[in-house]
């Protein structure tokens, strides 16, 4: 069951006494918690029947006492335990979990990890309630997720705009969702988001960004590469080196995979996890760099990543590091 299934059940008035939300992806947990806090009860019911507790500020006895209360002037009450991972004696909730109150919806947000699945508590949770276990998305999953989120907000998005957004922000789903929400406010319903919209409302230049730097490197266009890096140097917040290097490493790692793939564009797109719309660009870059050039690029990225954090470097500015690295990639 994913977070959307839980919310769908709630909208259909299907409730369980316990919802245990855990794992590494905060966004999915936050979506469920936010819905529970603001939509499971009417405003009139919330005053007496909504309790929100924080793990670092509460204890198991307070939580259990809140859960064992009966609702007032409502069919059910909602108890939310946020930051459960910070609560001491969390496993002492086991006695309540074993016999939960049917009129209480108890939502536990346990971020940044999971409880031991072999423990008695974990087995009780699965038996008595619903478990949402979240994982961080891989970088190659982000564009598809962003596109789906855009559609859920009544908008469309071009392939290039979607990749531009994902490449710039990375796998921070909360931030991607916030930027899409911002676009929704500023654009008419049904609008297909393009690069100009991303530039205007998100603040990512459609000409000078990591996505365009990748393409320029892939085409071995030294002039364009240096223009983009010059822009980055003048606008360090637009693309700090700590964001640029991982993105380029991911790009060349995908190119390296192509050398072992048999088949056409469809098979290659699937193998490296990119939209078929872009696979031709990767194939062209693979032809230009070849296996040896691609391996050299990956080694240079590793080397300059170390230099960017002060290892084997005496303080070279980020812009100069990027220029030097790009030059060595294209002029070995």
UniProtKB/TrEMBL annotation:
Keywords for this protein: DNA replication, DNA-directed DNA polymerase, Nucleotidyltransferase, Transferase
Transmembrane intervals: none
Domain called DNA polymerase III delta subunit-like C-terminal: residue spans: 207-303
UniProt keyword annotation of Cell division present: no
Residue ranges constituting the DNA polymerase III delta N-terminal domain according to the UniProt record: 19-133
InterPro entries, A to Z: DNA_pol3_clamp-load_cplx_C (IPR008921), DNA_pol3_delta-like_C (IPR048466), DNA_pol3_delta_N (IPR010372), DNA_polIII_delta (IPR005790), P-loop_NTPase (IPR027417)
EC id: 2.7.7.7
Gene Ontology annotations for the cellular component aspect, listed alphabetically: DNA polymerase III complex
GO biological process: DNA-templated DNA replication
Enzyme class: transferase
SUPFAM superfamilies, per database record: P-loop containing nucleoside triphosphate hydrolases, post-AAA+ oligomerization domain-like
Stored Pfam families: DNA_pol3_delta, DNA_pol3_delta_C
Catalytic activity line of the entry: DNA(n) + a 2'-deoxyribonucleoside 5'-triphosphate = DNA(n+1) + diphosphate
GO molecular function ontology, one term from the record: DNA-directed DNA polymerase activity
Lineage top rank: taxon: Bacteria
Family: Belongs to the DNA polymerase HolA subunit family.
Protein name: DNA polymerase III subunit delta
Organism, as annotated: Chitinophaga niabensis
């Amino acid at each position: 069951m994913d977070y959307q299934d839980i919310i769908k059940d709630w909208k259909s008035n299907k409730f369980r006494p316990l919802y245990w939300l855990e794992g590494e992806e905060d966004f999915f947990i936050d979506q469920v918690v936010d819905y529970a806090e603001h939509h499971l009860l009417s405003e009139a019911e919330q005053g007496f029947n909504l309790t929100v507790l924080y793990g670092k500020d509460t204890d198991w006895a307070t939580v259990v006492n809140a859960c064992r209360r009966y609702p007032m002037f409502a069919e059910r009450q909602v108890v939310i335990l946020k930051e459960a991972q910070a609560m001491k004696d969390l496993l002492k909730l086991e006695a309540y979990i074993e016999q939960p109150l049917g009129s209480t919806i108890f939502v536990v947000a346990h971020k940044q990890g999971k409880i031991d699945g072999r423990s008695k508590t974990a087995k009780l949770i699965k038996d008595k309630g619903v478990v949402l276990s979240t994982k961080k998305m891989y970088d190659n999953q982000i564009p598809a997720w962003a596109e789906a989120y855009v559609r859920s907000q009544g908008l469309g998005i071009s392939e290039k705009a979607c990749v531009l957004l994902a490449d710039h922000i990375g796998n921070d789903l909360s931030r991607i969702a916030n930027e899409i929400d911002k676009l929704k406010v500023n654009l008419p319903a049904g609008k297909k988001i393009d690069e100009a919209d991303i530039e205007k409302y998100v603040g990512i230049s459609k000409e000078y960004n990591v996505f365009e730097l990748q393409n320029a490197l892939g085409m071995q266009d030294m002039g364009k590469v240096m223009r983009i890096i010059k822009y980055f140097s003048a606008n360090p917040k637009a693309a700090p080196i700590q964001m640029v290097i991982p993105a380029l490493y991911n790009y060349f790692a995908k190119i390296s995979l192509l050398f072992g793939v048999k088949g056409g564009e469809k098979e290659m797109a699937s193998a490296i996890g990119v939209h078929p719309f872009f696979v031709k660009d990767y194939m062209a870059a693979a032809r230009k760099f070849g296996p040896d050039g691609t391996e050299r690029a990956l080694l240079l990225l590793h080397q300059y990543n170390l230099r960017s954090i002060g290892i084997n470097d005496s303080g070279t500015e980020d812009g100069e590091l990027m220029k030097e690295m790009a030059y060595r990639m294209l002029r070995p």
